[in-house]
């Protein structure tokens, strides 16, 4: 959720204002855009203004239940509040999030890291563990978005001197950097930075380079590779308005089958962090207008999908064990489009 552009290259206050204006033009994407705006305000040092944006989302006339990720908004608000002296309120929000037990990894990571950054290591470990146990128990292959939960838990436990358990082993398995997690999370590293031994300093520089490389790799695709999905009613409206797109979507059933086949092909080729974005005709028409293009131009469809993903509209694929199918049928994924998975 955080802007990835270095501070020296961006006027964060101006970027926040631009995102707020864009949110007014695309109300269906307001949540993701305003969260990005709040992050820019935090980077600009205007934390009270960032809190105002978080409150704007949580107290909108439609209510927080209409948000895609209300627990994420609350977690970001808590983290921000603690950074400028509102510790009691931040703790109360964090306790509420832990009690609510959200099914999204992001709120767990944010509140646990907030506790960690304020030296509440035991509480951070407990929070990471609660999230990992809730979301990853009986999951054969942890989804990409859950990796920070495992890595963060590993880091905090390393700082506490705890012995490895099964979750730590899983984190080691998922970690792809040439430098192991044990080295990256070694508390003694901070002491080596003050060493006057050239060999120790050189070893630390190598570890930092590896860590930076892994970080850059993660940022190279900050949102999923997304495939565009049209619900049946939206697809009917789309084809009626723009008959030239009928060649892309002969039938809704074929459209759904193509989505699943495309995602499986991408997964088989080694592409990770896959997702699905759901289109609407008004949103697509607004996007086409912003691109000065015709909605009937099929070349615009993948650009629209990428833009929705960049705005945080993607839902991860494949769905978690026991979750409903992405197609909206209401059936469990493994009994619907995932029957052959």
What does this structure look like?
α4 runs parallel beside α6 and α6 (105-117) packs antiparallel against α7. Strands 1-2-3 form a three-stranded mixed β-sheet, with helices on both faces. The protein is built from 16 helices and three strands. The chain folds into two domains: 7-188, Alpha Horseshoe (Serine Threonine Protein Phosphatase 5, Tetratricopeptide repeat), CATH 1.25.40.10; 225-335, no CATH class. It is 58% helix and 4% strand. The chain starts with 11 loop residues before the first helix and ends in a 24-residue tail after the last strand. The model has no long low-confidence stretch (mean pLDDT 85). By secondary structure, it is mainly α.
Task: State the main characteristics.
mainly alpha, single chain, 3 strands, 2 domains, 16 helices, 341 residues, Serine Threonine Protein Phosphatase 5, Tetratricopeptide repeat, three-stranded mixed β-sheet
Q: Tell me the number of structural domains.
A: 2
- The sequence of SSEs as H and E is HHHHHHHHHHHHEHHEHHE
Distance between the termini: 30 Å
3D shape: globular
Give me the CATH architecture of the largest domain, please.
Answer: Alpha Horseshoe
CATH topology tier name of the largest domain: Serine Threonine Protein Phosphatase 5, Tetratricopeptide repeat
Which runs of at least 5 residues are low in confidence (pLDDT < 50)?
none
Binned, the helix content reads 55-70%
Side by side, the strands of the main sheet go 1-2-3
